Amino acid sequence: MLRLFLLISLTCLVRSDAAETCPSFTRLSFHSAVVGTGLQVRLMLYTKRNQTCAQIINSTTLGNLNVTKKTTFIIHGFRPTGSAPVWMGDLVEALLSAEHMNVVVVDWNRGATTVIYTHAANKTKKVAIILKEFIDQMLAEGASLDNIYMIGVSLGAHISGFVGEMYDGQLGRITGLDPAGPLFNGRPPQDRLDPSDAQFVDVIHSDTDALGYKEPLGNIDFYPNGGLDQPGCPQTIFGGIKYFKCDHQRSVYLYLASLREDCEITAYPCDSYRDYRNGKCTSCGTPEQSCPVLGYYADNWKDYLKQKDPPMTKAFFDTAEKEPFCMYHYFVDIISWNKNIRRGSITIKLRDRDGNTTESKIDHEPATFQKYHQVSLLARFNQDLDKVATISLVFSTGSVIGPKYKLRILRIRLRSLVHPERPQLCRYDLVLMENVQTVFKPILCPKLQM
Fold first, then answer.
1. I need a surface site. Which of 62, 105, 276, 296 has the fewest CB within 10 A?
2. Within a domain: residue 201?
3. Same-domain pairing of 245 and 356
4. Could you tell me the end-to-end alpha-carbon distance of the chain, in angstroms, rounded to an integer?
5. Which of 293, 372, 377 lies closest to 331 in space, CA to CA?
């Protein structure tokens, strides 16, 4: 019995020491959110030397922070229940894997934890002042503003902007992940994130109809799925708490996906989501300029954007329901020979030699097919099949009652936007019966065909 007692005591002691030597993000209860919390900011440093065990630092103790390297601050937002952000650990790990840097988690949970959103929003400028004091000390030790990178989530995006404004926009970069909309919509630039707050500001808008900010706030503003409802998120209140936060949090998970090597999310500069879906925005500047990519490597577009006046652009793209979220874009060029105009949607399915399939429904608005006119439809697939063995098509007018129509196709051509070097696939003389799947084997298009 004595041995058991000593073993339990030793175990508790080890756990207590571990808790002291490896500080964790502040976790509060819902009770704390109800009664409210006073502002307290903790800075938690992670580096290659301490990737899993945080080091508490402040303006008098920089710890392992190497002022000669990039320092990335992660700033969370409103915490109505007091819990820690579920994505924080993954983001720290992914950043350290991407580059040898300092990662500083800005833990202002005591202040962000409240059921009254206004109370948290009112503390954002105070958090920014505390961060400036810390950065001032970094600069005194030899750090450069060029190497300061801030990733702000929701309210954290505006905190990043306030810090950037204090340094006259000389911070290296700010990334805003679905910047908070309530209480900030319509506010002047000095009261929110804006493009002048850093040398480069990129923003992901994933919940513009609820918790996020709708209008552009950066040098480049990304709007996944138009910035509204995100695929895979609950569409009704019956989805529980996910209904309220899933769209808002999707910006974080899209950014995380950019740090992994599963795929590269390409976006298309465009004036509107509708124009993007209609295939009007697949050119990304000069032939030498590739399209911007979402997330960590978005700053590859920094120099190109500087040539624009003003240096701002909006970019649109669609995603899959779950990680890694990538969609692969193709043009489906159709020349029809119906005597009368046909309007409707096309569903196209690809199948490779191994039996893998991927499908795209091009039904956001009816396409108009006229005799001998080419219609170019933008198809989005969640798999990139290299060797396409068969293609299937379904034409639909969307009519439940009434006659069934035919779509007579003189030529259909499939061409990849992501891999333009791939051979284009064609087929000639097809007749599609409405709502009936037509399957065929494609052939290589003539090489000189444009």
1. 62
2. yes
3. no
4. 85
5. 377
Indicate the pLDDT class of residue 447, thresholds 50, 70 and 90. Answer: confident
CA angle 167, 215, 231 (to 5 degrees): 115
Catalytic residue among 154, 360, 396, 416: 154
The pTM is what?
0.91
Angle, helices 88-98 vs 241-258, to 10°: value is 10
Model confidence band, residue 20 (pLDDT cutoffs 50, 70, 90): low
Residue type, 412: I
C-alpha dist (Å) from residue 66 to 42, 61, 170, 199: 19, 12, 20, 22
248 is catalytic: yes
Task: Give tens-digit pLDDT for 160-192.
Answer: 999 999 999 999 999 999 999 999 999 999 999
Tokens encoding 351? 């199948």
| 35 in any annotated domain | yes
Does 31 share its domain with 116?
Answer: yes
Annotated binding site: 192, 194, 197
Residue 4's pLDDT is what? 29
Domain final residue pick, 317, 340, 355: 317
**Position of tokens 């609820």?**
210
**How far is 450 from 447, CA to CA, in rounded Å?**
8
- Give the 3-state secondary structure of residue 434: coil
Tell which residue, 138, 137, 197, 206, has the closest CA to residue 173: 197
| Binding site members for Ca(2+) | 192, 194, 197
Residue 449 lies in a domain: no
% of the chain at pLDDT higher than 70 = 93
- pLDDT, residue 282, reads 85
Q: Where are the beta strands (DSSP E) in 77-124?
A: 102-108
Residue 328 CA to residue 324 CA, distance in Å, equals 12
Q: Is the pLDDT of residue 5 over 50?
A: no
Q: Are 219 and 356 in the same domain?
A: no
End residue of a domain, out of 283, 317, 351? 317
pLDDT of residue 168: 98
Closest CA to 265 of 220, 295, 305: 295
98-139: pLDDT as tens digits: 999 999 999 999 999 999 999 999 999 999 999 999 999 999
Are residues 89 and 69 part of one domain?
yes
Angstrom distance (rounded) from CA 116 to CA 424: 56
Q: Does residue 15 carry a pLDDT above 70?
A: no
Catalytic residue among 107, 178, 221, 318: 178
Residue 6 lies in a domain: no
